Structure to design on (166 residues):
């Protein structure tokens, strides 16, 4: 199993983040209206999955704000912020921050997403949360870019993620 670090401490992560060139696995997650959505709900759009532990942490808040800013100029692209946060918390955060170019989705009803997408913390204090990752998909759900961020407290490589959409 892969490892990431949190403040330098190794943290085991279960599963494998989808690799560039492969088809993304399907998912069911819960949106802020408490409705379950699937990958198919975003058909015909390019997708940037900003997978984070929680919007209530500084780095996650920064990456959510940054992808909101970057998404506003991208045609046919949706940014999905995926976390274990309850939909109420994600909605509150985005409302307070004025973020309307991202869609927050929760794993709280569908924890299998974490292992299927290779972001399941395992056997450590972060278990139940998602490791930080970014996966970019084309309109056919082929992976264009994939990054499991090596240090949880670091931001993802925004430039690499956006370059995959050029």
């Amino acid at each position: 199993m892969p490892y990431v670090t949190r403040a330098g401490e190794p943290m085991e992560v279960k599963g494998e983040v989808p690799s560039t060139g492969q088809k993304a696995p399907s998912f069911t997650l819960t949106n802020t209206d408490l409705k379950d959505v699937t990958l198919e709900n975003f058909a015909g759009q390019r997708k940037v999955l900003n997978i984070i532990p929680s919007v209530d942490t500084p780095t996650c808040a920064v990456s959510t704000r940054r992808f909101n800013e970057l998404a506003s100029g991208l045609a046919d692209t949706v940014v999905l912020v995926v976390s274990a946060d309850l939909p109420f918390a994600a909605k509150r955060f985005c409302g307070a921050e004025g973020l309307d170019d991202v869609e927050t989705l929760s794993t709280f009803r569908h924890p299998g997403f974490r292992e299927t997408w290779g972001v399941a913390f395992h056997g450590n204090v972060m278990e139940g949360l998602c490791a930080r990752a970014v996966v970019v998909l084309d309109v056919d759900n082929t992976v264009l870019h994939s990054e499991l961020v090596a240090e949880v407290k670091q931001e993802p490589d925004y430039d690499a993620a956006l370059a995959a959409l050029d």
About this structure: DSSP finds four helices and ten strands in the chain. Strands lie at 3-6, 9-14, 28-30, 36-38, 46-51, 77-83, 103-106, 120-121, 133-137, 143-148. Residues 58-71 form the longest helix (14 residues).
